[in-house]
Amino acid sequence: MTPTDLTITPRDRRFGRGQGSARHWLNGDPIATAFFNALSITFPRGEAYFIDSVRAFREGVPDRLALEIAAFTKQEVVHSREHLAFNRQVTDNGYDVSLLDADVVRLLDLARQRPPIISLAATMALEHFTAILAHELLRDPRYLVGAEPEAAAMWRWHAIEEIEHKGVAHDTWMHATRNWSRAKRWRVKTLMMLIVTKHFLHHRARGMMELLRQDGITNVRAWGGLLHYALVRPGILRRVARPWMSYFLPGFHPWRVDDRALIALADSAYADARMAAPATA
Predict the structure, then answer these.
(1) Which InterPro entries match (predicted)?
(2) pLDDT-derived band of residue 279, with 50, 70 and 90 as boundaries?
(3) What's residue 277's pLDDT?
(4) pTM given for the model
């Protein structure tokens, strides 16, 4: 269960305004830069979808969950704003992200044709993805070694809040499906995770390959660099494989792993940006 003493705290920070950035802002490495850039392109539209999917089921939820949904919404709105600003820097550095953005639009258009409960299941799966990536990013500071300071700060700030609200979509799902059998819940959520994982890996790889192509890195060199980064060093996808699999366990809950200590280690830099907790949903 979500810890009863957890507070989801939106932090209203702005990053990198009025500053230029290097094309390869992460340690001069086009592979590492492409990994984060390709991920960032998805966030503004994706997080709007997450908000809509969760808020569709906010009526009648317990008071505490209603407050958490409100705080989750505030956090995701600010995330979208900051990734729009970050993505403008990506395009200012000469990247054409139209293919990446079109992929996101096409997938979300398809998703919105499904029943709202399926959108909530997809959101729950993607929130688990973002939470385990956020955990890994905060757990090992080497991922952002050599990054431009404002970019690194933005990604750490986003990771803090993804961990903080990682239980909201799940708890909303549990309330929305409270009349389902445990077997039906497990079947739908695990099938959706498999679908989401297939699309996530395919389209993030496709996005990275497109950005690398624009850097003149193609074919074996591009695929080799991508696979080495994801699976070997630093190996972020390899490292999140086990927590990804935990999603399939009966009785799974995101807060079975209480990683608030990672938030505490990184949060002091954003203390002045904390927004008031929502008083009502």
Answers:
(1) UCP07580
(2) low
(3) 65
(4) 0.95
- Residue 223: exposure state from Cβ atoms within 10 A (0-12, 13-18, ≥19): middle
- CB contact set of 76 (below 8 Å; sequence gap of 6+): 47, 48, 50, 51
Angle, helices 116-139 vs 98-111, to 10°: value is 140
On the question of pLDDT at 233 being above 50, the answer is yes
**Quick check: 90 and 41 in contact, CB under 8 A?**
yes
In angstroms, rounded to a whole number, what is the distance separating the alpha carbons of residues 113 and 116? 9
For position 280, what pLDDT does the model report?
47
> Are 30 and 217 within 8 A, CB to CB?
yes
pLDDT, residue 275, reads 84
Q: Which two tokens stand for residue 16?
A: 């990198």
253 φ/ψ sector (left φ>0, alpha ψ -120 to 50, else beta): beta
Q: Where are the domains of the chain?
A: 30-273
Q: Which of 153, 182, 174, 163 is nearest to 268 (CA)?
A: 153
- Averaged confidence pLDDT in the chain: 95
Distance between CA atoms of residues 163 and 42, nearest Å: 18
